[in-house]
Amino acid sequence: MTESFSTLPLRINADRMSASFIHLASIGATGDGGVSRVTFSEEHLAARKWLQTEIENAGFEFRMDGAGNHSAFLDCGIKDAPTLLFGSHLDSVPNGGRFDGALGVMAALEVLRTVRENRISLRLNLEAIDFTDEEGTHASLLGSSALAGNLHPEDLKNPYSGRENFKAGLMRAGLSEENMLRASRSKESIAGYLELHIEQGKRLERAGINIGIVSAIVGYGSYRLSFIGRADHAGSTSMEDRLDAGQGAGAFILAVREIVMRDFPNCVANVGKIEFAPGASNIVPARADLLLEFRSPDEDQLLKLDIALMKLANDKAEQFGLKLLAEPLGKHLPNLMSADIQKTFRSSCDTLGLSSTVLASGAIHDAQSLVDVCPIGMIFVPSVDGASHAPREFTKWDDCVHGANVLLQTVLSLAA
Amino acid sequence: MTESFSTLPLRINADRMSASFIHLASIGATGDGGVSRVTFSEEHLAARKWLQTEIENAGFEFRMDGAGNHSAFLDCGIKDAPTLLFGSHLDSVPNGGRFDGALGVMAALEVLRTVRENRISLRLNLEAIDFTDEEGTHASLLGSSALAGNLHPEDLKNPYSGRENFKAGLMRAGLSEENMLRASRSKESIAGYLELHIEQGKRLERAGINIGIVSAIVGYGSYRLSFIGRADHAGSTSMEDRLDAGQGAGAFILAVREIVMRDFPNCVANVGKIEFAPGASNIVPARADLLLEFRSPDEDQLLKLDIALMKLANDKAEQFGLKLLAEPLGKHLPNLMSADIQKTFRSSCDTLGLSSTVLASGAIHDAQSLVDVCPIGMIFVPSVDGASHAPREFTKWDDCVHGANVLLQTVLSLAA
Question: Has the ipTM of the complex gone over 0.85?
């Protein structure tokens, strides 16, 4: 009987994880199922304070680095052993959901608890981590960039929140820019980074699959595009005589969707912001400024999509007699997940009898900060209706537990 | 010789009008051919002060009513005779052109000078008028509405410029809201209203015609349209799974132009302002708000266009799975010009050997304020390249003189 019991795969304590998850979701709760825990807000700091207490009450070593990253540390007892990191983030977007980030941190802590209470000997230290400001309230992937040594003084000069808000937030959190810039760790000290996250899309739910094994975090490009026409009186200028910047913008917005769906099935593109100038009801738009971004899991496709979209913008400008200005705003190549870790995730799913598929992450995640530091790996669990960054964000509890079990199995395999 | 000389039609003094016009264009000049004489600005008040001096120096009676409308008055000597009004406005849009409004006022003053120096007996008083705030810096057609008795206390509660700016402007101009609301004149006192204006479009220039006789000022309708979709993460949500409000807006903008050009050749429509919410590069637009306006010289067409555009908006919303909100912002039926005055304008053109055509005004003008008070009539002279409300606004001087001569002949016919 001992024999047969020991062959069952080890599983996390779902009830214990549930209790922690529910408590966390009450901190910064917005009353509609969502949470607001914007980085360095009172709610965010309260959640971190609670996490610290949870870690200490569970008997783990609590660590906080110069970037404010919070960790539970489990020493393997081997001198100079590297550390296998896994976790996510407790901060949220304003009025966000209670699963994004939080599930990954709670699962990481539960994995640590399960490993310790089963007295499993491992060759790696384990560290369950809550990264600072994944959502980029102040700076995108702030805590993981700092840990990876990718944070530079210029990254902190123009925080999204504004300098004053950022500085006030640092003060509330007891942090400093100097210490943030000194939070990097050596490559030798980190054996890998794993993260469990909700999908924030509909693919897993639609396919009825338990676990998404992330192959890559998509690369992206973004532009500010300006279609330039001529301001004319909208009453006295005939339709034929106009150089209406809005026509170029409208045609472009439609064609972007068509071309991506037809020619780039694994890619996405979005026009999320637009403005006409001078912007009066009775003046033909002289200028339409819009923000375009596009993403692809494949470097070659990303380049081809970039070229296709710029050609499209030029064609639509020409069609309506407009000029086009295209200002590149950002570009990031796809970040590939470790093939070995993907394979281990797959084995873990098989061991647990869970279905899995390989997919790319359309959203950015802390894992990508670490791509040049250590092997990285991510898994997704299904998001109901694909909703995210909103109170209606939801993942069935069974799916959350499946994800945590896959994380546990993978940690055990990698650290064995 | 006296015989043959007297059969030549009387003409204005083009050099005298030119001197006045050039001086006026120097007040508020922006250095690039344009002027900035925003209503109640220092430049606007300086132009009006100069006009008053010009009127008084020419020996006419200067009048100013409670709305600040400035006039040169020429009494016909007949007791209780009604007055034939003609003029335009000295105010401009910010960085506007030097012809819009200014030409009409300078031509009106020159007509008065010509009539008096030729000692012509008429049965009507003549009044050359500069209306307050035609451009609607504070309230659209403010001075002419006040004179026509169409100005009500609620019209002054939310001036476009804001209450504080409006009140400060009134104070600078030595005006008061109370007096503005008491500036109306009786129908019996006004025999008609005539206005010479630049076309602000390309039709006359393209057709090579001297004078446009205005048949109507177009009616218009306007709406705030909101296409409602769903905010989703633009990285993790596939193109198929989006409810992208920008798609509805883009398709609508394109289709508006197509439908107006195909089915409503005498009408125009414009989407002059647009905004996406939440308005972030990486979020699929949940909402697109846009301002639509459309104009037609014909009441029946205006109604049909309204219905067609609303159907179009609904169709495009439906096509992309969006909801549509349509909030009507304003509606104004076309204002018809007096058929008799149009006929007289035509005779004047024939007398002067000038080509003419009938057209509708796409822009609003002070004449429409007076449509229920007296017969109204307007003529246009060609705008080079159709430009207006901009420094490059230009009308050849010969065309300006032609317009003033047609105004003179028509005043002489109507007041004879």
Answer: no
